[in-house]
Each structure stands twice: as structure tokens, then as C-alpha cells.
Amino acid sequence: MLDQVTHVENKLAELERVTLDDLSQVAQDARSVLDQVHRIMQHPNPAKTPPTFQSPYIAELCKIDKGHIRHLAEKHKLPYGTKIPGSKAHEYTLEEVIQWVNTLGNYPKRPEGQQGLAIAVVNYKGGVAKTSTAVALAQGLSLRGLKVLLIDQDGQGTATQMFGINPEEHVDYEHTIMPYIEEDQPDLRYAVQPTYWHNLSLIPAASVILAAEFSLPAKAAKKVDFWNFIKRGIEPLRQEFDVIIFDTSPSLSHLTMNTMLAADGLVMPCPPDALDFASSVQFWGLFDDLLRAFRKHDPNLAAKTYAFMTVVMTKVQPSEGHRLVKPWLKQAYGRHINVLEIPESAAARMAAAQLKTIYDLGKAEGTVEAYRRFKEPMDKFCDDILEKIALAWRA
């Protein structure tokens, strides 16, 4: 017994206390490592560059016979790409691909006089493929000929990083939504910036936007309906963009609530995992509670409607656990559950490790089967969301 007490005392003597200065050093060291990772991943190009594509991809997007590519290029005066040295194949830039889609693709266009639609991608927790789904959806819709804006509203700036931008190094206060939140700008037009991806613009985020959680509710003292602040901020942008996609934070914050009330459509990525399912239920329960509270102050919210709300299963695996939880999701969300499933895939993991989406890869890196297994459901998901957008425009 005495030996045990002595052993514990010795261990306590060896215990190294962690001070606040230690935690500060941890933050600095971790940031330094992340900066190195960014530099390595972007070497030798400091800025991210779009992928290139080959004829089969154009044929797939435009739903044409790839054997007719040359003839159609001559007939419609479309770019024929650049011949790949040592090969018969031609390579096309992203801008050239979108030119083909705009000419020959049979995708819905925004009717004259209609405004762009806002879509909020939401979830209560991280690790559910929320950001990668938001960015891939933005890219997929742009590949179908739409002009898209992605607004990063997560203080971690993960979506911003996926555009090749280091939030803590290259995103300042004035680049984010904060000048509008602080009422130094009349709307969000000032923050829009072009990206490496043609037809896709970005409003970036960094940790500075966490201050919105204090600024928004403080407006209540000024008799301002702060829950409609984002709605007013994007109003002029609806004329410029066909679709505005919000990547929200993994929480139901004041900013996320604002965004959901500004949105015309809601997308919730959710893996068929018991904890992820339970978290999604908590999310909608809290949303309902907050909405009831806001409606006491603003009766007009009773008239709020959405063109669509869809829950899409992500990171789906052929496991017993996922087979068990899928029926729970289908029963819980009924007509709102998306029939499409986005699988877990080696291609998805490879893309994520490089801060890319499946569309950034352009072509298979690794096995062709893993690439197709992930890309085909994502293509169908983008087509499904585009169909929902088109229906909303016609309504």
C-alpha cells in the first residue's frame, strides 16, 4: 500500500502543468505547421489552378457523342482544346468546357426577370462532408452553366482554404462579411472576389467573423430585426448570380439562423451514422425553438417558405451500422430525404487530403473505379439540385 502511495506521489511530482502560455505556444506551433502544409500543397504554384478536361468529359456534360466533338467544334465555332503531346487526345480548359456547355448543354437557365436563388448547406456538427458538399455543389452548378457565388460563413475558413486561400494569412476583416455586419457597408457586394474556378466567386471567411455572434444580437437594442440581416445583404447579389451557396458553421449560431432565413433552399449532408442522425434531429429541434422565438418579434416570418429542403446521405459505407441507420433517416425526413447517396470513397479521401473536391481532380487520380464511384453520385446530386432550382424559378 505504501509503495502505491509513493508511486502516485512520484507521478504527481512528475506532472507537468499546462499554462495559458503553453496553450498559446501550441497555437503558434500548430499554425506554423499548417502554413507549411499550405506551402507544400500549393508548390510550385502559390495560387490554386483549375483542372483541365478531355473530350469524354465534354461529351458527358453536353450529352453528345464524343466522336462528334470535332464536327461540333467546327459547326458551332467552339474551342477544340489543345492537343496533348504524344497523344491523339485534346485537353480543354475549364473556361472552354463551360463555353461548350453554354452552347450545347441542355441545362436550365435563369429566366429573365428572375432572381438568383440562395441555398444554405447546414449541419450541427463537423465531419459530415458539409463543406466539401457545398464547394462541390458550387463547382458542379458552374459546370452546368450557372454563375455561382459561395459565401463562407464558417470561422474556420475551410471552404476558403479549398479555394487555395489561407484564411489567417490572406483574409482580412474587410474581405469578409464583417464590414456589412458592422454596418460599414450597405450590402455584401464589396466582399465578392473572383476565384481560380471560372463562373464561381467567393466571399471568404476567417476567424474574425466569429465576432458576428456578438454583433448580430446587439442590433436588437437598436430595434433592428437582426435575423433578416443576411437576407438584406445578399439582395443586390441575386441579380448578379444565378445561385448563392452558403457554407455555414457546424452550429446553429445567430449567423447560421440568419442565413437559413435568407435562403430559398436548404441542404443538409448527413452520414447514416447514429450520432450524426441524433445531431441532425437536435439541429432541427433547436431551429424550430429559435424560429418560434423570432416569430414573436416578427409575425411576417410565418409566411416564410422554402423552394426545397433536402437531406442527403454522405460518406455512406456498406457497413451494418449504416444499413441500420438509413431507415431512421428515411423515416425521420420522409419526402425531404434525397434518393441519392454520396458514398465514402478513396477518391473522396484523396481529394480532401489535397483540399480539393472531386471536380478539382478533373480526371481519375488513383483507380478509375474509385473516381467514378464518387463522381457519378455527385453529378446526379448537382443535377437534382439544379432541377429543384429550375422548378423554383418557374413557380
From TrEMBL:
It comes from the Bacteria. Pfam families: AAA_31 (PF13614). Residues 118-276 form the AAA domain. InterPro entries: AAA_dom (IPR025669), DNA_Partitioning_ATPase (IPR050678), P-loop_NTPase (IPR027417). This is AAA family ATPase. It comes from Noviherbaspirillum galbum. The lineage of its organism: Bacteria, Pseudomonadati, Pseudomonadota, Betaproteobacteria, Burkholderiales.
